[in-house]
Amino acid sequence: MAFLQCQFYSNSLEIMTSVNVILPEKIEGPLPTLYLLHGLSDDHTVWGRRTSIERYAAEYQLAVVMPAVNRSFYTDMAYGAKYWTFISEELPERVRSMFPLSPEREYNFAAGLSMGGYGAMKLGLSHPDRYAAVASMSGAVDSTRLTRDEFVNDMTYMFGTADQLKNSSNDLFALANQVSTKGVVPLLYQCCGTEDFLYEDNIRFRDHLTQLGLALTYEEEPGEHEWGYWDWKIQRVLSWLPIPNRK
């Protein structure tokens, strides 16, 4: 695999930004692509430092795109930059202009941990026509609850008030309601350790998706909010992805 570090000016963010990309060294046609998203206290380098994602992805001839989004919660912030516009619109266009990545829905996936699990679910539920499958590991999936709780200051900068967030395009529960009425819905994967501080949030979101009849693979087992768990579960996510022509 090849590991590339990219810096470019983002028109959405109006600043220079960084993206790490993993590519197969022998490329045969447009590549299936996984957008792999980081958590609140991390950056675009963390997946490469804390897991063996480069080695894991090699088995699947999969491109992995790891962007930096700071403490944005993958949203056009109430008091900050337009990170949702960047991650959902600008980033795919930019990386496809630089690398041989497939634009086809069946070749595009998203996954992430914690804040990144929220981001991955948001991509899939907001744009079911663009992603075949998305995965959340220990995801911060109930952003409305977090706005009222321990992350209230962070969440206010990102979303505004809890009332502004609820039932908006940043509310995963509302997005799930909307996508359940559409003909095209991505496959969904969700996991969380039973000792994780976000476990109860994940149970609520799991039950909501199940009640809507969405195609959800849910897994739980003993585990906390830490990298040993995520290094293990990203391997499970890669094996679960419906990559066409998997070797």
UniProtKB/TrEMBL annotation:
Keywords: Hydrolase. Pfam families: Esterase. One of its GO terms (molecular function) is hydrolase activity. SUPFAM superfamilies: alpha/beta-Hydrolases. PANTHER family: DIACYLGLYCEROL ACYLTRANSFERASE_MYCOLYLTRANSFERASE AG85A, ENTEROCHELIN ESTERASE-RELATED. This is Alpha/beta hydrolase family protein. It comes from Candidatus Cohnella colombiensis.
